[in-house]
Amino acid sequence: MVSLKESLGKATIVDFWASWCGPCRQENPHIVALYKEFHSKGLNIIGVSLDKDAAKWKEAIAKDGLTWTQVSNLKFWDEPIARQYNVEAIPATFILDASGKVVAQDLRGDELKAKIQELLAK
Description:
The chain is α/β, with parallel strands linked by helices and 122 residues long. 40% of the residues lie in helices and 22% in strands. The chain contains 5 helices and 5 strands; from the N terminus they run αβαβαβαββα.
C-alpha cells in the first residue's frame, strides 16, 4: 500500500503506463531525466501500471530505470486507481501541486518540464 498523501512532493506526477504500451515506454526516458534533474528539488513521481503480468511489469521497470515508487493491482484496464482518475488511454500523467490538487494533465516534453519548474519555484 502506498499513500498518495505521504508521497506528495512540492510537485508530484502520477504516471499511468504499462509495459505493453509503446508510447509509454517511449516517454519513460523523458520522465527518468526529469526525475533525475528535479527529485532533489522536491519532485516525486508515482507510477501506476495497467499491466496484468507482474514479471513483464517488473522487467520494464528495471529496463527503463524507473527508480520511483511503482504500484499496480495487475488488473489491466480494471486498475482501480486508473478508474479513480478516469484514465481512458495511456500514457496519462497527472501533475499535482504540494497539496495534492491536480493542476495539469497529459503534459509532455518541454511543457511538462516548465510546469514542474513552476511548481518547484513556489
